[in-house]
Write a structure and sequence with these properties.
The two termini are 44 Å apart. By secondary structure, the chain is α/β, with parallel strands linked by helices. 37% of the residues lie in helices and 16% in strands. The chain has a 7-stranded mixed beta sheet with strand order 4-10-9-8-7-5-6, with helices on both faces. The protein has a 4-stranded mixed beta sheet with strand order 1-2-3-13. The chain has 15 helices and 15 strands. The structure holds pyridoxal-5'-phosphate. The site of pyridoxal-5'-phosphate has 15 residues, from α6. Pyridoxal-5'-phosphate (PLP) binds next to α6.
Length: 450
């Protein structure tokens, strides 16, 4: 590239060098729909034109403590000045990675005490599968490799994680599909709306049992599940669902991986949701996002003692490694982020303010355009009816997302729905303001002519 082309006015208007994630590259090539965020503070972000928005997505389900926290920034800076980088390969270690691993072992459920660090939720999930496959080889079960996942799951976009993700995210792309079988998720079909939770869970358990008997428990390594399914629209399971699924898979010697990439670090009012919110102790927890509140890329795969004992037995080599596993700056960032959460009692706060946020979202269900409004603490989705006359190619979620953005709130549109996952530090007044914006945006779309 010629230097004279490197003109800051042009960076966002016609840049085709940056390939964006899950984007319509053809639209972006023509500069359709791109929004450049250039600054952030607290619960707000600012775009390249200087317009301020509520960060209704918390970055991407991750900026839990809010933007620009001085303590976290100082901790990362200090760490870079002390030890910028060294690997955790072979015999090498460093204090900050060891300290964070110990901290996570303290916060995670009792049996989960061993932590492998990576840089993204996708890789944390791939790591969990690689380790379980190796574990089964070591136990003399080399065929026990298949993965049970669920329709509407999102587990990331590496070659393996995208295969565990619901297939709609990889249409036209390849994935390691042979390894994965998708069972039902806890989203009710229209004819199941009046079932009791217990009857609905029975149906889901039956679906799981059928999959196990078809594939054969001797061929299945694990079941992977988000406590609340995020990317496909905040699908909240009925009480008792996860416990039933865990008991079922354990009865077949199948491990349970809880993908807490979104739900950990305060989003549901606790540091981890598996045990405190859903009453289960999985065999593996994967997490990322809120671990550093997004200030540094970091993810963790947290293993039970039992799995660790097998993979650390005499003669078992751990042939898995990433240059940046346990990166000092990322680990220092996570420790500082967790310290902020503990000092400011953010999870406890979320149990109060998150409930206010949840109630406000649920009240949107009174609007005609709203089909369903779902929320648990600071995870929320609003699903829309399609107004009569709306052309097939119109996405109502996108229209509401655009209307909210015009009013100063960024949310994430999905098909005929929007999802929200704001920073956990919203004040009561800010929560009311966000609900008012949503209310106005939804009404504006309801009143538009199609
Ligand atoms: N798992 C869940 C539940 C997620 O929501 C995501 C990302 O949104 C991932 C895994 C993948 O994480 P990453 O994008 O950091 O690879």
């Amino acid at each position: 590239m010629n230097n004279s082309e490197n003109n800051s006015d042009k960076i966002f208007s016609d840049d085709t060098h940056l390939i964006q994630s899950f984007a319509d590259l053809n639209n972006l090539k023509q500069s359709i729909g791109r929004l450049a965020i250039t600054g952030a503070k607290g619960v707000y972000v600012t775009d390249s034109e200087g317009k301020r928005y509520f960060d209704g997505m918390g970055g991407l389900w991750c900026v839990n403590i809010g933007h620009g926290n001085a303590d976290v920034i100082a901790a990362v800076t200090r760490q870079l000045e002390t030890l910028d980088y060294f690997s955790t390969f072979f015999e090498f270690t460093h204090p900050v990675a060891a300290e964070l691993a110990r901290k996570l072992a303290t916060l995670a459920p009792d049996r989960l005490n061993h932590v492998y660090f990576s840089n993204s939720g996708s890789v944390a999930n791939d790591t969990a599968i690689r380790i379980l496959h190796h574990y089964n080889n070591l136990r003399g079960h080399p065929k026990k490799k298949k993965i049970l996942s669920r329709v509407n799951a999102y587990h990331g976009s590496t070659y393996l994680a995208i295969a565990m993700t619901t297939p709609v995210f990889s249409q036209g792309w390849d994935a390691a599909r042979d390894l994965v079988h998708h069972i039902r998720c806890p989203k009710r079909e229209p004819d199941e709306m009046n079932l009791s939770d217990a009857d609905f869970i029975d149906i889901l358990a039956e679906d799981m049992e059928q999959a196990i008997s078809k594939i054969g428990a001797e061929n299945i390594a694990c079941f992977i599940a988000e406590p609340i399914m995020g990317a496909c629209g905040v699908i909240i399971p009925p009480e008792g669902y996860h416990k039933r699924m865990l008991d079922l898979v354990h009865a077949h010697d199948i491990k349970y991986i809880s993908d807490e990439v979104i739900t950990a670090f305060g989003r549901l009012g606790h540091m981890f949701a598996s045990k405190e919110v859903f009453g289960i102790e999985p065999d593996i927890i994967t997490t990322a996002k809120g671990l550093t509140s997004g200030y540094q890329p970091l993810a963790a795969t947290i293993l039970s003692d039992e799995i660790f004992d097998v993979i650390s037995q005499d003669g078992a080599a751990f042939l898995h490694g990433m240059t940046y596993s346990g990166h000092p700056a990322a680990c220092a960032c996570a420790l500082a982020n967790i310290a902020v959460m503990e000092r400011e009692a953010i999870p406890e706060q979320v149990r109060k303010t998150g409930k206010l946020f949840e109630a406000g979202i649920k009240s949107l269900a009174d609007l005609d355009l709203v089909k369903e409004a779902r929320a648990s603490h600071f995870m929320a989705a609003v699903e829309f009816n399609r107004p009569s006359g709306a052309p097939d190619n119109i996405n109502i979620g996108q229209l509401v997302g655009d209307a909210a953005r015009a009013r100063g709130l960024i949310v994430r549109p999905i098909t005929d729905a929007i999802v929200l996952s704001p920073p956990l530090i919203l004040s009561k007044d800010q929560i009311v303001e966000i609900h008012q914006i949503l209310h106005d945006a939804i009404n504006a779309v309801a009143q538009s002519q199609f």
